[in-house]
Each structure stands twice: as structure tokens, then as C-alpha cells.
Write a structure and sequence with these properties.
320 residues; seven-stranded mixed β-sheet
Length: 320
């Protein structure tokens, strides 16, 4: 299929590299893109009024991209992206529009694509959401003549911009993103920090009312949870306690790999969860919800299968 692309935003270099692999025509590239891909001959320096054109720009929060164009052309681009980045979240959001969100693995793959063009630190696209101009400056200064230092420079930037911003007692938000784009806002107090393992433990206290999801037990005033999260992990654990310290149960949330930012923790909930009661009984929940999003093509079969694999691995480890 003949498709022309106009690409703008923080993912432009990586995506241009990706689409060049498929020999697609890039329309009206920026000056920086032209300089970085001087040998590519399928650039067009003018905007064409064509049904084959798909415009790619950043989502408002820069956590992914927006495709604008004819549906057949968009479907073709989505197919190419899904074949390379199995974890993307796709939604049709309006007339001739498709949203594609990039979770942790997709961002990491885009980092490597960009690095094949210009020296790029690991976690480049995530760190740019924290301090875009600063990341670009540090890469130019420190990597232009020493690209072999990308791991060291990237570690230092992540430590400075993210881990040094955490301290015990700090309240930090959790962006619990549902696959339908709804956000369930959560918050916890940092009670333990382990930078070497990229782990945080949060404490959350409850005022009572309602029931614990999955456990089907009442939430009482004074109950609290310890929430253990690790950057890049496909799940995290809530451990629920009564005010007197008695264990209520454990809840393992299955999600796209966790991303830490200085002011929040972010992931996409993959619907299924593993529940464990104090007596040892266990259950995998919300299976139909995961299947529903797979059938709607919001997520790929590979991502749904990964969620299942993670859930079963947790359940097996809990039996041991």
C-alpha cells in the first residue's frame, strides 16, 4: 500500500527510522530530520493533498502519537507499528483519528531506533517528558563524541531527574490507566526507597466503606495497604492490613511495565489480577475484561498473552 507520512513530535526521529525500514515516503520533514537522514531519497519537501497521507503528531501528554488520515491508511500504519511494538495501546477516537500509546517496552524500542540514527540515552523518550531540552543538551554535550557512554550518561540522568526526587514521606500519585483511557487516580506515601533495584514501597490508608476489589472483604476505617512497585515490572503488589496489623489479603495488579516519573507512577492496567486470601486461596480475576479489549483490537494478542503469562507465573510462585 502506498502511504505518505508527515511526522512531528518527540518520536519523529525514531519513527522516521522505523518507517524508512518499510520504504515509505516522508512528507515535509523537519530540518533536523533531513539532516539526520541525508541519504534517504523518499522525502517530499511539500505538503500533498492526498488520501494516502497520514499525519503523525504527539498526543497531548506525549505518551504516544495521534494518527490522522484515511482509515485504510491508518490501519496499515497501525499494523506495521503493532508488528514491531506488541505492547502499544490503540484506540479509534474520532473521525479519521487513531490514538496509539507507547508503554515502557515500546518507548525502550523507540529509544534504540533513535540511537541507531543519533546517540541516545536509554529511557530517552521517558526522560524527555520530564526535561526535554535538558536531555537533548546533555546528549549533545556528552554523547556526540562519546556514544559509548550512553548507558552511564542515561543512568546519571535517570538518577538525577527521577530517583533523587523521591524521599520518605513524600506523597506520590499513581496514574492507574484503564485500557479505555479512563484514569483511576491513586496516591500513596513513600515509606521505602531502593534505587539500586528501582523499587518503591508506598503506604495508603483507608477511611472505610466499600469492599476490596477481588477479595470481596469490607474496607474498615484504619485499614492500610503497603504497595510494592518496581520500575519496568509487569505487575505490582498491594498487601492489605487491618488497623491492628492483621493481614486481609494480597492483590497483584497485572499491567504494562511500570514507569517512574519524579511526581507520579504510571502504567496501563491489563485488567486481570491475582488475588490471595490469608488462608492461601488464590484466584485470577477479570478474565472477560481482558478478552474484551483483545477482541476490540485495543491491545494485541501478544500483549493479552503476556498478561496471562505474568498472572500464571505469579500464581505458581505463590503456591511454592
Amino acid at each position: 500500500m502506498e502511504v505518505c507520512l508527515k511526522i512531528r513530535g518527540i518520536y519523529a526521529t525514531a519513527l522516521t527510522r522505523f518507517f524508512i525500514e518499510h520504504d515509505l515516503t516522508i512528507v515535509s520533514p523537519s530540518k533536523a530530520i533531513q539532516e539526520r537522514f541525508m541519504d534517504y531519497r523518499r522525502f517530499q519537501d511539500y505538503m500533498i493533498d492526498s488520501p494516502d497521507l497520514v499525519e503523525i503528531s504527539d498526543l497531548k501528554d506525549q505518551q504516544g502519537i495521534l494518527l490522522k488520515g484515511d482509515q485504510a491508511q491508518r490501519n496499515f500504519i497501525v499494523k506495521l507499528i503493532r508488528e514491531r511494538f506488541f505492547d502499544v495501546i490503540c484506540r479509534e477516537t474520532g473521525f479519521n483519528l487513531t490514538e496509539i500509546e507507547f508503554p515502557y517496552p515500546a518507548k525502550s524500542a523507540l529509544d534504540e531506533l533513535r540511537n541507531s540514527v543519533i546517540p541516545t540515552v536509554p529511557n530517552h523518550h521517558r526522560l524527555r517528558l520530564v526535561a526535554s531540552e535538558y536531555i537533548d543538551l546533555m546528549e549533545r554535550i556528552q554523547l556526540t563524541n562519546h556514544p559509548e557512554k550512553r548507558e552511564v550518561v542515561g543512568y546519571d540522568l535517570e538518577k538525577r531527574l527521577i530517583w533523587e526526587q523521591f524521599e520518605k514521606g513524600k506523597q506520590i500519585a499513581i496514574e492507574h490507566l484503564k485500557l479505555d483511557s479512563k484514569v483511576i487516580p491513586l496516591e500513596g506515601e513513600i515509606v521505602k526507597i531502593n534505587p539500586s533495584e528501582k523499587r518503591l514501597t508506598l503506604q495508603r490508608r483507608f477511611s472505610g466503606g466499600g469492599k476490596y476489589d477481588g477479595l470481596n472483604l469490607p474496607i474498615e476505617r484504619g485499614d492500610y495497604a503497603l504497595t510494592e512497585l518496581r520500575d519496568g515490572e509487569w505487575f505490582y503488589r498491594h498487601i492489605y492490613y487491618r488497623q491492628d496489623g492483621n493481614l486481609i489479603g494480597e492483590y497483584y495488579n497485572i499491567n504494562t511495565p511500570i514507569e517512574f516519573y519524579p511526581d507520579r507512577i504510571r502504567y496501563h492496567d491489563l485488567e486481570i489480577d491475582v488475588i490471595k486470601w490469608p488462608d492461601g486461596k488464590m484466584k485470577i480475576t477479570d478474565v472477560k475484561e481482558l478478552d474484551r479489549f483483545r477482541e476490540s483490537n485495543c491491545i494485541s494478542k501478544e500483549l493479552a498473552d503476556k498478561a496471562w503469562t505474568v498472572a500464571h507465573e505469579i500464581k505458581i510462585k505463590l503456591y511454592l
